[in-house]
């Protein structure tokens, strides 16, 4: 079994950096092979832009999907992106480590998604959801929040973290992944970060041990239930007789 | 009245680029002053990283919030970030134009948020939500989606766009903005983009005209109701006797 681990944090000594190393170690101890993409360390560019392409489908206007598809067809997908797709293709499990910044992924991870989920090769209208490129693979997000679990609850002052994670997880569903329940570690304050960094006996140790324990039983972790493609009418709306598995159904925010 | 417009699209001739120019023109015709940040054209770096700081609060470990606060206190916030904060400070209205990529903001806009919402000067524990730095100002998102309105409905195959936008809008609420109902323009396909670009009479014209009409009555646009700070107990959970304005209440996804 092989896992690909993606880390989105600028500091290797951060809690997220430590959690990513726990992922490598704990899975290796159980016989897994692992690869790691430390996006900041790699200098990964989160923005698709003309500079990534030496030739162009349309040199007059830069259309992201058209260029992605053209280069996928030509076999000239940018090297940093092709390398990520290859690592994902070889793994049965993807683990993404990130701190929740502004109720979402850090930009470097959002841009990893923007670029690595390549239109034309990783997804297209006939290859998504149930027929997604990564079907048969699992993904799990390990997320840290500065605020407490209470403040991040469904009635919390910071908003519901599980709702904030929904677009992130749904993106993985879109490209075919089986999405495991995320691990969310709350209450990581900036003071804790600095004060505990050198102590050796930190609150972070409790969290890394909790994450290590989670990895021990990852094979039995429950995945999120989504509606299948057949549950939707050609219009794109849910069929009246379909079950309502997907979390977004009936949970429309009042905006 | 002054508006600041932020555009997150790599191609100026795109629909989003056109919509941003409509914002400039339509508001100018009504006597507004405007500023524009075309993030791709500016080469805005969406990643906070050590290279942005010539001095460091902690040279041994890069902690984003600590560095942001330290440099805010020293008056040495990176120039590109300080310029954005200044433009926001001078405006009564912020308009953000972006295509929905992977159910969220393009990385360049997420990173604008990660960097421009500066810890220490734009937010801190005693300055957020009701006491947020940008209180008294309004923000409106103008968002395009490739998928149809049906597929983006609350029971749509693409998931509920209004739920996907929630973390984005809630971030603006966090820093004090009055968040207007977003404008969401659905059904922008890649084929449409290319075929209509040179026709002069495109489907895009219908959309830009709709956006122009929206701007004509922006003063009366309804804003999203959020719970006030006093509605929450010290624990961070909603008080039992508080109203449930915020959309996230009782809308927990089943994840």
Please, how many helices of chain A? 9
In which range does the helix fraction of chain A lie? 25-40%
Show unreliable segments of chain A.
248-255
Structural class of chain A: alpha/beta
* Total discrete domains of chain A: 2
Quaternary assembly: homodimer
- CATH classification, class level of the largest domain in chain A: Alpha Beta
What is the percentage of strand-forming residues of chain A? 5-15%
Q: Under the CATH scheme, which architecture of the largest domain in chain A would be assigned?
A: 3-Layer(aba) Sandwich
SSE string of chain A, helix = H, strand = E?
Answer: EHEHHHEHEHHEEHH
- What is the number of E strands of chain A? 6
Shape of chain A: globular
Biggest sheet character of chain A = 6 strands, parallel
Question: Could you please describe the fold and organization of this structure?
Answer:
Two copies of one chain form a homodimer. With 255 residues, chain A is α/β, with parallel strands linked by helices. Chain A has two domains: 223 residues, Rossmann fold (3-Layer(aba) Sandwich); 25 residues, no CATH class. Chain A has nine helices and six strands; from the N terminus they run E-H-E-H-H-H-E-H-E-H-H-E-E-H-H. In chain A, strands 1, 2, 3, 4, 5 and 6 form a six-stranded parallel beta sheet that branches. In chain A, helix 1 runs parallel beside helix 9. Chains A and B meet through helix 3, helix 5, helix 6, helix 7 and helix 8 of A and helix 3, helix 5, helix 6, helix 7 and helix 8 of B.
Task: Note the topology.
The structure is a homodimer of 255-residue chains.
Chain A (H helix, E strand, L loop, with lengths): L1 E6 L7 H15 L3 E6 H4 L21 H11 L4 H12 L2 E7 L7 H10 L21 E7 L16 H4 L1 H9 L3 E2 L3 E3 L4 H7 L6 H14 L39
Parallel strand pairs in A: 1-2, 1-3, 3-4, 4-5, 4-6
